[in-house]
Write a structure and sequence with these properties.
- By secondary structure, this protein is mainly β.
- It has three domains: 137 residues, Protocatechuate 3,4-Dioxygenase, subunit A, CATH 2.60.130.10; 151 residues, Single-stranded right-handed beta-helix, Pectin lyase-like (Pectate Lyase C-like); 119 residues, Jelly Rolls (Sandwich), CATH 2.60.120.
- The protein is built from two helices and 33 strands.
- Strand 5 and strand 6 form a beta hairpin.
Length: 429
């Protein structure tokens, strides 16, 4: 009698059949105490393709750092409306999205407090045992002392996001800062990289390689190369062809000290790329290093304004906003008694005001930024208020004529924390 090994089989596609009754994309119901946030991403297989029948399971503490479980015996408040658990299926492209609150820190096995995080389990067919990981918050100071993060090798921790063989999709609205390299793309043909922020990274802001038929547009790149001045660039392209690099904005936020040699670089294996209408500011050597073939560089200049592209008026360097003050901001800086404005070279409509700050104003405190046209306040006002809030957006429709002068009035409440602000105004033609 001969014995043969049973044929190899994978786990069947049961996740969307037997577990859907517990699916929820709202981990924390409305009214639950805590800073609300939305987390989204994609579940990819080893070939970089989206997993259409996966499931993401979330388990987290409440805002005070207490789990909704009887085994959590900490003497911390428990929110009766908070469950802290949910399951989110992936869609046809492997994408998932859920809303929740930022959890408080919880003690580890040794009693030491861990940084706020979400516990994540990943289920998918072909995977006999689920994978466990965590989601941390990049702006959390406690990350530097978290015992789990301390186990991550530096080689894995130095890139904010690494995308390989991710093709024919959008990479949009992400924020990468305080990494060695903000984001890295390789072999990502037909990808649109739009509306992201690559800033205050120790080396390059973003690197894109071996990619064809791509779009890199409406991204913000600033204050990279923090590790060494005049060493790393905002964006590097290598072995890329048939692409469009347009309507991006760059500047420096380091007290007037330029950091990067070049804003954009293209190596000698790059070909047939259009580089158009980028706002390039804050470089040591030149705005663009072009060693490629048939790279069409047109209409790139500091503070470029055009149809549906952002016109950025920024503080020069790290200008601190103190408590209980009123000041005015424009491209040359700001002062309590000086209005610094910028003339608009084209007519258009101001439709969005965005404010970001390095420090939250604090509980019951605020920074209020008002757009001004020709020295007159306009009905486009963004207010950053509260503890743990670092940005605000206001929308409207303010008509702008050619040669109008624009600036911003900044008002801080009496108890607001000192902070650096970045102010951006979007104008469409």
């Amino acid at each position: 009698m001969s014995l043969y090994a049973t044929a190899h089989q994978t786990v069947g596609p049961y996740l969307h059949i037997g577990l859907t009754w517990l699916n929820t994309d709202r981990i924390a119901a409305p009214g639950v105490q805590g800073e609300r946030c939305t987390i989204q991403g994609r579940l990819l297989d080893g070939d970089g393709l989206g997993v259409s029948d996966g499931m993401i399971e979330i388990w987290q503490a409440n805002a005070q750092g207490k789990y909704a479980h009887p085994e959590d015996t900490q003497k911390k408040p428990r929110d009766a409306a908070f469950k802290g658990f949910g399951r989110i299926p992936t869609n046809a492209k492997g994408a998932f999205r859920f809303s929740t609150i930022k959890p408080g820190g919880v003690p580890g096995p040794d009693g030491k407090l861990q940084a706020p995080h979400l516990v994540v389990s990943v289920f998918m067919r072909g995977q006999l045992k689920h994978l466990a990981t965590r989601i941390y918050f990049p702006d959390e100071a406690a990350n530097t002392k978290d015992p789990i993060l301390a186990l991550v090798p530096p080689a894995r921790a130095n890139v904010g996001s690494k995308m390989t063989r991710c093709k024919a999709g959008n990479y949009e609205g992400n924020y990468h800062w305080n990494n060695d390299i903000g984001c890295f793309f390789s072999d990502c043909d037909y990808t649109r990289i739009i509306g992201n922020r690559f800033e205050t990274n120790y080396k390059a802001g973003v690197e894109i390689g071996q990619t064809s038929f791509f779009v890199f547009s409406n991204n913000t790149l600033h204050t990279n190369s923090l590790l060494a001045t005049n060493t790393y660039n905002h964006a590097n392209f290598f072995d890329c062809d048939m692409g469009i690099v347009a309507n991006n904005s760059s500047f420096e936020w380091t007290g007037g000290v330029t950091q990067v040699p070049y804003c954009l670089t293209f190596d000698n294996n790059c070909a047939e790329i259009i580089v158009d209408a980028n706002s390039l500011y804050g470089y040591v050597t030149a705005p663009i290093l072009n060693n490629g073939t048939d790279i069409k560089v047109t209409n790139n200049m500091p503070r470029q304004l055009g149809n549906d592209r952002p016109y950025n008026l920024n503080f020069t360097g790290n200008v601190s906003v103190a408590a209980g003050t009123t000041m005015y901001a424009g491209p040359s800086g700001g002062a309590a008694t000086q209005i610094v404005s910028a003339p608009v070279p084209e007519k258009g409509n101001a439709y969005k005001l965005y404010v970001a700050c390095t420090a939250a104003p604090g509980a019951a405190q605020s920074y209020t930024v008002t757009m001004r046209k020709n020295g007159v306040d306009q009905a486009l006002v963004a207010t950053v208020s509260g503890a743990g809030v670092f940005s605000a957006t206001a929308t409207g429709n303010i008509s702008i004529a050619q040669n109008d002068s624009l600036d911003f009035k900044v008002v801080t409440t009496a108890g607001a924390a000192a902070s650096d602000l970045r102010i951006s105004l979007a104008i469409s033609g």
